[in-house]
């Protein structure tokens, strides 16, 4: 067997399982840096109880900041005398956005141990970090490029949206001291210190909410892409089995048979590891993705509604348009990455059938048939009655959202 090429640093135990300490520095470091800054991920390198307690306090502070945004919006809605359809839609829109961020924080903090087990016991296993040839190196290199690209695109959109919301109250004429979002304020905002105090807590809560969206989504995208890379590595290893057996048989037939038995066992273990990783990913994020797709319809239709009410290229128009781009990109990435995994899985059965399986032992052929039968079912990520990660689902979401916008627009004109 070709000499393995290690791409992961850190201690490895006898079973090929990496040490959990500092794991976030070896896998998706940029994404985990965001999660740490957002108070959602306590670094595994923290050993001091005092430091860990300080970080937990910071997590609570971040959580309360987002909660305060939701609570003050609710209070303002109750106390407001202006109960028009447009104002109610705006309140609902903001509540959905902030509640979505809050759900992401709760999901990540409460399931931190499960995420660590997924990364430690599947994604970073020695079998996936020991690359055997140039093809496998190219697969991992492509995955790393995808990881950076998604973070840049998604991060740029959120940054653009955040800046447009944050600077509107301070760079344009604002005689009424309007905040980033209409919410209850316990003091008179016409007073300078009250306005800046309220603006500051809104800004911090909004930043944490944006980081929650960016960090958690990128973590899901990265894990899906990593599983897809493992799928490609598995297929690459499987297709090279007959050639490697022939090469071994030239020197020693008995050794070649033993090599074949061990190799196919490794391939079956690789295949099981992929399905196990997908199952754990489903278990961790299934509810979050379900909520995301349900709320997406409301977010898209309300964004289109607000966009239709604004003057073209005005500051509110730009802010709403930026958020609309974020919402569309977020759901497009979910569908894109889920579909990539399904497409790679669908290639497995055909590739196995096309290889030189006639040269292999009967027991090996039976195991290949077993792999083909399992692969034919595919990997269904987050699939249920509502969510099915595919381009068709994305188009259906856009169509349903536009239909909902039409109903909303007609109801406001009656």
TrEMBL record:
GO terms for biological process: signal transduction. The chain crosses the membrane at residues 58-79, 91-109, 149-171, 203-224, 284-306, 318-337, 368-387. One of its GO terms (molecular function) is odorant binding. One of its GO terms (cellular component) is plasma membrane. Keywords: Cell membrane, Membrane, Olfaction, Receptor, Sensory transduction, Transducer, Transmembrane, Transmembrane helix. Its main location: membrane. It is a multi-pass membrane protein. It is found in: Cell membrane. It holds the Pfam family 7tm_6. InterPro entries: 7tm6_olfct_rcpt. Belongs to the insect chemoreceptor superfamily. Heteromeric odorant receptor channel (TC 1.A.69) family. This is Odorant receptor. It comes from Nasonia vitripennis.
């Amino acid at each position: 067997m070709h000499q393995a090429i290690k791409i992961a640093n850190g201690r490895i135990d006898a079973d090929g399982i990496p040490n959990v300490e500092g794991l976030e520095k070896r896998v998706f470091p940029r994404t985990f840096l965001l999660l740490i800054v957002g108070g959602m991920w306590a670094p595994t390198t923290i050993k001091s109880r005092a430091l860990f307690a300080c970080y937990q306090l910071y997590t609570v502070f971040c959580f309360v900041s987002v909660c305060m945004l939701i609570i003050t919006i609710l209070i303002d809605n109750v106390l407001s005398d202006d109960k028009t359809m447009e104002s109610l839609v705006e309140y609902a829109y903001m509540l959905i956005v902030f509640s979505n961020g809050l759900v992401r924080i709760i999901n990540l903090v409460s399931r931190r141990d499960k995420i660590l087990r997924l990364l430690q016991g599947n994604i970073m296993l020695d079998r996936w970090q020991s690359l055997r040839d140039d093809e496998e190196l190219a697969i991992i290199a492509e995955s790393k490029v995808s990881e950076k690209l998604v973070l840049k695109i998604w991060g740029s959109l959120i940054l653009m949206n955040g800046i447009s919301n944050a600077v509107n109250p301070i760079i344009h004429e604002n005689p009424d001291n309007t905040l980033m979002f209409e919410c209850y304020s316990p003091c008179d905002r016409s007073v300078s210190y009250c306005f800046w105090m309220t603006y500051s807590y809104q800004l911090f809560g909004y930043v944490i909410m944006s980081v929650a969206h960016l960090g958690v989504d990128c973590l899901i995208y990265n894990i899906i892409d990593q599983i897809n890379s493992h799928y490609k590595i598995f297929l690459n290893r499987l297709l090279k089995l007959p050639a490697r057996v022939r090469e071994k048989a030239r020197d020693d037939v008995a050794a070649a048979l033993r090599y074949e038995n061990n190799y196919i066992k490794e391939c079956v273990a690789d295949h099981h590891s992929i399905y196990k990783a997908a199952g754990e990913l489903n278990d961790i994020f299934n509810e979050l993705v379900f909520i995301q797709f349900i709320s997406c319809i409301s977010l898209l239709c309300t964004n289109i509604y607000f966009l239709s009410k604004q003057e073209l290229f005005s500051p509110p128009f730009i802010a709403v348009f930026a958020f609309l781009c974020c919402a569309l990109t977020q759901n497009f990435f979910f569908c894109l990455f889920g579909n990539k995994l399904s497409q790679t899985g669908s290639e497995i059965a055909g590739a196995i059938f096309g290889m030189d399986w006639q040269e292999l032992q009967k027991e090996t052929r039976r195991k290949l048939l077993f792999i083909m039968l399992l692969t034919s079912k595919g990997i269904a990520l987050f699939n249920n009655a509502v969510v099915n990660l595919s381009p068709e689902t994305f188009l259906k979401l856009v169509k349903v959202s536009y239909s909902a916008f039409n109903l909303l627009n007609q109801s406001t004109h009656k």
